[in-house]
Amino acid sequence: MSTASHDWRRSSKGLCERVVVMGLETAFPQAATSVALIGVQGFGRSYLRILHELENTGQIRFVAGSDLMPEASGELPGHASFHSDHREMLAEREPDVTIVATPPHTHFQIARDAIEAGSDVLLEKPPVVSIGQHLDLMELCRRRGRICQVGFQGLASAAIQRLLEVAAADRLGEITDISVTARWIRLDRYYERSAWAGRRERDGVVVADGVATNPLAHPVMNALRIAQAEDPHAQPVQLDVEAYRCRDIATDDTASIRLHMSNGKHVHVAVTLCAETLADPRVIVRGTTTDAVLADTATSVYVGGIREHVPAERGQPLHNLLSHRRDPARVTLLAPLGQTLAFTAFLEGMMNSGPPHRLAPEFLDERDEEGSRRVILRGIDAVIAEAGRRPALFSEVGTPWAVPPVSVPLATS
Ligand SMILES: NC(=O)c1ccc[n+]([C@@H]2O[C@H](COP(=O)([O-])OP(=O)(O)OC[C@H]3O[C@@H](n4cnc5c(N)ncnc54)[C@H](O)[C@@H]3O)[C@@H](O)[C@H]2O)c1
Questions:
Q1: Which CATH number goes with the domain that contains 17?
Q2: What is the pLDDT of residues 48-71, one digit of tens each?
Q3: CATH number (domain holding residue 199)
Q4: Which residues line ligand 1 (CB under 6 A)?
Q5: What is the mean pLDDT of residues 384-402?
Q6: Same domain, 218 and 134
Q7: What SUPFAM superfamilies is this protein classified in (predicted)?
Q8: Which residues sit opposite 271 in a β-bridge?
């Protein structure tokens, strides 16, 4: 680790901590929440930017970072210590809040370590890779009196909050079903960036990097949250899964899924990373009175085709966690671990549905783009549109390459 010496002094801002690192000196209000980041590179970099802003406005002290890669130390501000061992970091710096932005299969143990060390946690999505882990972590939080918020930005967006208000005010009537559609484009480079990318398992450990369980996890989580609008305890009880892969990866990159919820509602998912043209996720909520759509990466919401007035901003689970810690009576935690149990049940069901079906080359196009290879599933844009409209599975809309679904019963306890 890099070392920092500390002393305390009064300043015009009140009691401050003075941190001296290699001749650099900076001061923070002592009361500010101390935050540490585990997993500095990759998606962790987006947290570095947010932490910089929060620190500049005196809301936090960014005390430490941890990453297996020693070069990650160079990405931290000079006053934050670097540790290649997250347990050492937790013991030495005792952060109030720890952000876990490491690969999914590492989340459970690292989050446990942070909670055991007395820290609240912001855990990136997908939070964990089994129901057993999920329930274990929830129980640990309860026993240790700690909070675990999940990095599902959509849940913390003003748009979904408005949609839930609209549903509660009975403006949609009874919600009958919900469709998730998304057409993303990922180049081979995306799968080459990390050893776990495109894997279902690694060294016997579940990774679950499928299209709907990781890259497009957000709209699935949003749909599950909406499906629970009238009954927060509703859980998925069965999945009908069509999982496809267009590349030589172990997991799916294209999927069509029907989730049966315990409250009788259905969520249909029709998504790909091999699109002809890009379309951001849409969650279409069908009610007996009218429909609503959560669009533009959960930054806008339409009810009966008319846009509701909400701030068009991405949700910020970290900001929500910090605000909740400051004022728990007035600020509701918007993406707590307990509320994401349905997503973990979905993820576990996807793993239990078996490996994806490899699509034959005759259905695929390939081309070079930006120095990498792009694979396109011919006709997928129209198939997703139709599956979302009906709603139905790919095999139910006359898709030439589709195979019958695998049905998987789910248990959430
Ligand atoms: N919320 C979002 O929109 C969003 C977007 C992208 C990724 N993510 C999530 O962020 C997480 C990280 O994804 P990524 O693509 O950045 O992964 P990555 O593999 O590219 O990077 C993760 C970083 O964690 C480090 N790391 C791994 N194990 C570690 C350990 N035990 N201790 C300390 N550091 C460790 C790696 O060295 C690397 O720097 C995943 O859970 C992913 O799903 C979320």
A1: 3.40.50.720
A2: 999 999 999 999 999 999 999 999
A3: 3.30.360.10
A4: 38-44, 66-69, 72, 86, 101-104, 106, 124-125, 151, 153, 193-194, 214
A5: 97
A6: no
A7: Glyceraldehyde-3-phosphate dehydrogenase-like, C-terminal domain, NAD(P)-binding Rossmann-fold domains
A8: 182, 255
